[in-house]
Amino acid sequence: MSDLVRTASPLSSSPGRNSDSFERPSFPWQSRFSRRTSSSLSAASPSNLQAAWDPSSARPSSRQTGSFTASASGSWNSTTRQHPGSSMGFGGQDASGTRQWTFMGFEWVVRDVHKLRDFVEGVHDTTESEDGSTIGMDDFEILKLAPLVGDDKFKLEVQAPVPNENGDSKPPTLTLCITSQILDFAHNYEMNATMMAGIKHDERIGARPEWVWDEHVDWVFRRESEVWDCPLPSLSALLENPRIQQSDSFTICVQIHCPVGPLFPQHPSAYYVPRDLLEGLEASLDNPNTGDVRFVCLERMPPDAEIPGSPASEASPATSRRPSSSTSSYSPFSLQTTARKRVIYAHSDILTRRSDYFATMLSSTFSETKLVPGDRKLYTIVVEEADFETVYWLLKYCYANWLSFKDHDDPRLAVEGIGGGWSARWLIQQQRGNEWDWTAFTKRPGDDSTVASARSATSAESNQDPNAATSTTKGKSVATEPSSVSSPTRSSPQAPRAPLKVSNSATSSRQTPSTTRRPLQPPVSGSSTMSNISRTKPVPLAGSAGYSSSGHYPLSPRTQRQSTVISTPDPHPHPTPPPPPASALAIYQVAHRYGMPALAALALDHMMSTITPATSFSLLLATSVWDELRTLVEDYVVEKWDEVSVSQEFEQCCQEVSSGEWGPDGGKTLMTLFRRLRSPSAMGYAPIIQNAFAKSAEFFRMPVDVKDSLQWEDPRANRGYVKIGRERVTQATEAAEIAALREKAPDFKETMEIGRDWDSVWKNQWPQETDAPGFKTTMLDFFQRCHELHVHVMRSIALGLDLKEMFFDNKIQEQSHNLRLLSYRPIKRALLDNEGQARAGAHSDYGTLTLLFQDQVFSIQISLLSKLIQLQVGGLEVQNPHTGAFIPATPIPGTIVVNVADLLARWSNDVLRSTLHRVVAPPAKPLNQQEAITPARQSIAFFCNPNFSAEIACLPNCGTVAKYPPISTEAYIVGRLAATYT
Ligand SMILES: O=C(O)CCC(=O)C(=O)O
Ligand SMILES: [Fe+2]
C-alpha cells in the first residue's frame, strides 16, 4: 500500500490549509468536475492544465506540491487529468458507457526560428553565422534537450533531419519524437494512445495564440513502435506566418491521451488505483461494524477548552478547564489534565500491511480478543503512548496515506502527554463512573515515576514487581486491555505516589495513574528488557528482532483473556469526526514505536520545515532522545543562535529546565548545546585570526626604535619585542652551544611576546594605542580564544588518555600561556645559505600544545576583473619521528596546526611526543643575477602552558616507569627560554 500513493514532496509541510477541514487533499489529477473540491487543488488552475516546458530547465516548469505533508499526490501534477467517469482499469467501460482516459499536455517553445531554419534547411549540418562562427546542433536548445515528461513516462525530442541524400526537392524538416519510457516488453504490453501535435505562434506577441498546424493520430506504443515520430512542417513554411516571423519563435504543443488503469498488473502504481477505491478504503476507518481492532485511547482536552456542563466545574475550577501550572499561562507540564476515553475501530488486514509492529502484534496468539455478536474476533489495543488525536492521524495515514499536522505544535504536549504520565490504561482500570466523560486527573507534586510507571505497562522489565501487570512485557508500547485491576508497576525506587483521580463522580485515588513531570517518553527498545539505557536511546522498532514469537506482549495471556466489560455504551459517533491535526512530534514518536519509518520521516520533515527560532528550543529539549531529529534541531539552533537566544521560548525553556520540568535530560541537552556553541568550529575563528594577523603586521611595521622600546627582557616575564637574532631556537640545551649557534646562524625572525595581562608580577609591553590602534584589545581577545581552544583540545586528549574529560582543566586554567607574533622579513638568499641557517631552526616547543597559525591565505585583488589569487608563503616543516624526514606543513585555509610540546610529552611519558619542527625559507625571487630574496612571512604561535605552579609528572595511564623526573612548569619553561635568548 505504501507504494500506491506517493507523497507530494518530502519537504512539503502542512500549512496553507484550512485546519478546520479535514478532507483528504485532492489528488492532483483529480477532475475539476469532481464532486469533491478542495483548497489544496486550487493550485491546479485551468491555466496549469498544460505545463509549459521550459527548454532551459531539465524538468517541467510547473510543479505542484501538495499542501499536505503526506498528500496522495503524484508528480503527473497539473498536467494530467482524469476525466470523470468510471474507475475501471485499462480504460474499460462502465455501465454508463463512458470510458476513462488520462490526458497529458506539454508545450515547448522554439526560439531563433530563422537561425534554426538556416541550419536545418542548409545542405550541410554546420553553417556560418553572421559573425563567421560555426553554427551546430548545440546552438539550439530544442535539438539538444530530451525532456522527460508526464512523470517521466514519455521522452520528448526534436530531431534535425539527416542531409537529404535522395535529392528530394522538399526542404528538410524537423521531426518530433515521443518515446514511451514505460513499456513492459517482458509482458508484451501495448498501450493505445491518441497523440496530438500542434504548432501555435508565440502568445507573447499579444495576440490570441492560434493553431498554425496540428496533427492527430491513434498510436499503439508497443515493442518496435515505442517511438511516435511526427514530422513537423518545414521551418520555411512556418516562417510564412507573420507572427512566427515577427516573434522568431513558435510553440510546439503535444497532447497524449491514453487509458487510465493499471498498466502493469505486476507493478501496481498509485496513478492507476481508482480514486473511488482509495476513498472507500479511507472511509472504512473507524467502522465499528467491520473493524476488528479496537484502539482504546485517552483524549486530552485541548488547552483552555471548557467542559460543557461539567458538574466538576462547580466542584473545582481546576477540573472545569484545562488546568494551568505555576505560571499564569497554560503549561503542559501541569500537574493536572482533563481527559476522557475514546475508541477507534480499525482493520487488522490494513494495519498488518502498514506496520510490522501491528503485523506481529495482531498475528500473535497473545493479543486480546473477544467475540462480538456474530462471533467476530475483536482485538483490543489500549494505547499507552499516544493520545486519541495522534492515534487517529496515525490510523488515517495507515488507511489513506495522508495526515494533517498542526501548524503550531507545542512539543511539551507531545512529551508530557499520554505515555508521559497520562494513560488510557487507568481509565480502563477504573471501571467506575463514566469513563467517556471528561475527567480531571491530578499528579502528585514531585512524583517522578511517570515514565517508569507508564513504561511498565508497555515496556519495562517489571519482573521485580510480582504484581506487575506487564511481567511478560518486552518493549511494547501498546498494551492489550487489562481485564482486572493490577497496580501499575514502577521501576522507581521511590515509594509509590499514585496521583489522585479527581473525577466528578469519585474522589478516590484508587487505580489512578502515577505520573510525573518528567517530560520525555523515550522510545521503546525491541529488546527483552527495557533498561534505563534504552530509555534514553531510541531503538526504532522497524527491523528490530524479536517480534516474531509470542510472549512479547504486555499481559499474560491467561490473566488477560477475560473479556472486559465496558460499563457504559460508547457515546461517540463512528466513524468519528476528525480531531484537530496531529502533533508532528507525537506522530514521530509513535511512528518509531510502530515501525513506520516513512511516517516518521514525514513527521521529521514537517518539523524541520516549520521550525522557527521562536519554536526551536523546546523542540530541542523535547527531542533529546531521538538522535536523528535532535541533531537536525541542534544544527538549526546553533545556526540561528542569535535569534534563538533572544526568544521568549528560550527563556521559558531555561526556567523550565531549572525547575526540573524537562527532567535530567533537559540539563544535559543544555550542556551539550552550550559546549557546541563554544566549540572552535561554531565560534567563527576566521575573522579573529585575520584580524590578529592584520594587527600583527601593523605592529612589525612600527619604527624600530618604537619596537625596541618594548623589548623582551626577562625569561620569567617572557613578554615584549624580540628583534632579529636574539633568539636561536634549537634542541641543544647547553647555553654555550646555543650561543655559538646564534653567533653563526641566528633565527631570521622578529617576534612579539604576550602573556596573560593580569599577571601581578610580569607586565605586558603594550605599544601606545596611537602607535598601534586596536593592537592590545585584538591580542587580548585572541589570547582568550586560544586559551579556550586549548582547554577543548586538552579535554579531548584527556579522554584519549582514559582520563576524566576535565582532568586537565584545573591544571591549565591559570593561563600561563605565551602568545607570540612572528615576522620573517624578506631576506637575501645568500644570508640563508650559511650552514645551519633557517628562518627558525629545528626545535620542539616547551609547553603542552602549540596552536600555530600560519600566514594562511592572502587574497590579492589583481586586474580589473577582481580576480582573486591566493598566495601562501609556507615554510613550516615537521619531522616524521620514524624516518627523521621533515615534511612541509603546507598551510590549509581554515585550519590551525596543533603541535604537541615538551611538557605534554613529559606528562604523558611520551605517549604523546613533542613535534620537532622548523621554518625553512621558501624559494627566493631573483633580485639580479647574483642575488635573490625570499618573500616575507608572518605567523602566530600560541604556546599553551600548564599552570606555572603545576608539577608535571607521569600521568596515571601512561606507563609504569616514568621516563622523566617530575618538574614544575615554571622551572622547565623558564630554563629553556633563558638558554635560547640572548
Ligand atoms: O613560524 C612558524 O611557523 C613556527 C614558529 C615556531 O615554531 C616557534 O616560534 O616556536
Ligand atoms: Fe616552535
Automatic annotation (TrEMBL):
Domain BTB intervals: 331-407
Domain Fe2OG dioxygenase residues, every copy: 815-946
Pfam family, one: DIOX_N
Stretches for region Disordered: 1-94, 304-333, 439-583
Taxonomic classification: Eukaryota, Fungi, Dikarya, Basidiomycota, Agaricomycotina
Protein name: BTB domain-containing protein
Low complexity composition bias: residue spans: 36-47, 310-333, 449-462, 482-493, 505-519, 542-551
Biased composition (Polar residues): 9-19, 58-85, 463-475, 524-535, 557-567
